[in-house]
């Protein structure tokens, strides 16, 4: 079975109490990883399976796209020990934004206790 890692930057919206941010579940399989993606628009949405566009195990280079009913997300960056970082284009922003997702437990990612800043 492939090792599964969860990367997120989730927090709790102070006004609504909704979980906000991104969650990427990364399962490194033999050829290409399997990636599941959650995002927030109000409350946390997803998961949606991502299409891996580029992956290099040695350097950690990673690119994937996610098609949703809201539009397409496109990530280009790196995956390394404990962190997934790079640029994320989303249907909600006019230009790509820098994101840094830290490796977390399932509980920490999907039920965070920290308030959003």
Describe the protein.
- The protein has 117 residues and is mainly β.
- The protein has a single domain (3-103), classed as Lipocalin (Beta Barrel).
- Helix content is 4%, strand content 60%.
- It contains one helix and eleven strands.
- The protein has one helix spanning 106-110, and strands at 3-8, 11-12, 19-20, 22-28, 34-41, 43-49, 51-55, 61-68, 71-80, 83-89, 97-104.
- A hairpin with a 1-residue loop joins strand 5 and strand 6.
- It is globular and about 40 Å long.
What is the arithmetic mean of pLDDT? 94
Outline: globular
Level of helix content? under 10%
Total number of distinct structural domains: 1
Topology, number of strands: 11
Keywords:
single chain, 117 residues, mainly beta, nine-stranded antiparallel beta sheet, two-stranded antiparallel sheet
Please render the helix and strand layout as text:
Layout lengths: L2 E6 L2 E2 L6 E2 L1 E7 L5 E8 L1 E7 L1 E5 L5 E8 L2 E10 L2 E7 L7 E8 L1 H5 L7
Antiparallel strand pairs: 1-4, 1-11, 2-3, 4-5, 5-6, 7-8, 8-9, 9-10, 10-11
Short characterization:
The chain has 117 residues and is mainly beta. It has one helix spanning 106-110, and strands at residues 3-8, 11-12, 19-20, 22-28, 34-41, 43-49, 51-55, 61-68, 71-80, 83-89, 97-104.
